[in-house]
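F.,

This is the one I mentioned.
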């Protein structure tokens, strides 16, 4: 690990160190871990570069070998000492509003209320223990709820730390909450999926929206936002660039930028959707509410002795089939709207897609055979 050309090395005693030349002398900075040493190095270099240390030598002397107490870096002066409440408003307005969906903003606001005991504290006064306690004592019961709450905390403090509003990041290395149970992603088996598809085909008037979710692996909001002008029967493609939420009907942003995509319209999907070819182009195809769809799915699964799943787990089923059929991971990520990864990975995908994707589409078209 390096920082600005300075390499952090492991000592034979097991700790880590890095050397910094200052005032014609070489000073050694020690850390119990590589990350610990990196943080100390970064703090020293940044303060030296910005002329924010009065007595440089005294500061460097504080970084003694780990047999002594771990050193602290003097607090970096900031333009404003935000309280947590003030920083949440600043962070939300500068980084989130306009970039994420209104429902996501509302979720942030609801989760932030659970930090009420910390609202009036300065950012620099908040500790890792305080945040860990807040997460463990939160009212969230599901893994998704706890994850979102923890993510909010981490994002806020990461941005504050990167903007040098705080000396140390208290949200770093937060322990997993005590009731953070391991999530088991559920999906239908191949045989169960075939049964589910056949049941939906037998009563399309009722179950067509659910069928599209499992055939294409799209999210519920993406399915509810589909319009005839998203369907291209010449190229057999499906355009996904909107997501519908009845709580925020005017907010049609998808989950993130990677969610905006054009994916193959598989053969069975084409047969089902062909009837919409000449419908009003901008009218939503599916207008049932989320509650109605969840109820329909629950009844269908229960009556036919199929595992109880959520609508989103129909998407898990699609992804599971792709993996079973050895569809290239990059192709699967593109189809379902997951982040493909680095720019290099995206470049590789662009290069191979013209040769590989047609074969993968043909493989998926045989899934109901």
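My design for it:
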């Amino acid at each position: 690990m390096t920082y600005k050309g300075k390499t952090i090395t492991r000592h034979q005693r097991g700790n880590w160190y890095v050397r910094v030349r200052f005032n014609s002398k070489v000073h050694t900075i020690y850390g119990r871990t590589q990350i610990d040493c990196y943080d100390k190095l970064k703090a020293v270099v940044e303060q030296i570069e910005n002329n924010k240390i009065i007595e440089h030598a005294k500061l460097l002397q504080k970084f003694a070998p780990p047999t002594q107490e771990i050193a602290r870096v003097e607090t970096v002066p900031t333009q404003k000492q935000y309280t947590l409440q003030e920083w949440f408003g600043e962070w939300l307005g500068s980084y989130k509003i306009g970039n994420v969906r209104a429902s996501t903003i509302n979720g942030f606001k609801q989760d932030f209320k659970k930090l009420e005991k910390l609202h009036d504290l300065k950012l620099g006064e908040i500790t890792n223990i305080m945040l860990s306690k807040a997460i463990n004592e939160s009212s969230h019961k599901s893994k998704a709820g706890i994850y979102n709450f923890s993510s909010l905390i981490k994002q806020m403090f990461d941005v504050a730390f990167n903007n040098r509003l705080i000396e140390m990041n208290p949200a770093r290395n937060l322990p997993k909450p005590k009731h953070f149970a391991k999530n088991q992603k559920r999906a239908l088996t191949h045989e169960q999926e075939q049964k589910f598809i056949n049941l939906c085909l037998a009563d399309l008037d009722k179950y067509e929206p659910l069928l599209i979710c499992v055939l294409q692996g799209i999210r519920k909001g993406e399915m509810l936002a589909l319009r005839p002008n998203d369907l291209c029967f010449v190229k057999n493609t499906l355009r996904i660039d909107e997501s519908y939420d009845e709580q925020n009907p005017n907010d049609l942003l998808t989950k993130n930028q990677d969610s905006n995509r054009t994916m193959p319209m598989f053969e069975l999907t084409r047969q089902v959707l062909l009837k919409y070819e000449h419908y009003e182009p901008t009218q939503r195809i599916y207008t049932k509410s989320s509650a109605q769809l969840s109820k329909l799915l629950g009844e269908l699964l229960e009556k036919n002795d199929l595992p109880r799943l959520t609508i989103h787990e129909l998407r898990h089923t699609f992804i599971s089939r792709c993996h079973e059929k050895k569809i290239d991971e990059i192709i699967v990520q593109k189809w379902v709207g997951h982040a493909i990864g680095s720019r290099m990975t995206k470049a590789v995908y662009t290069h191979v897609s013209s040769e590989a994707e047609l074969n993968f589409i043909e493989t998926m078209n045989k899934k109901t055979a």
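The chain has 14 helices and eight strands.

Talk soon.
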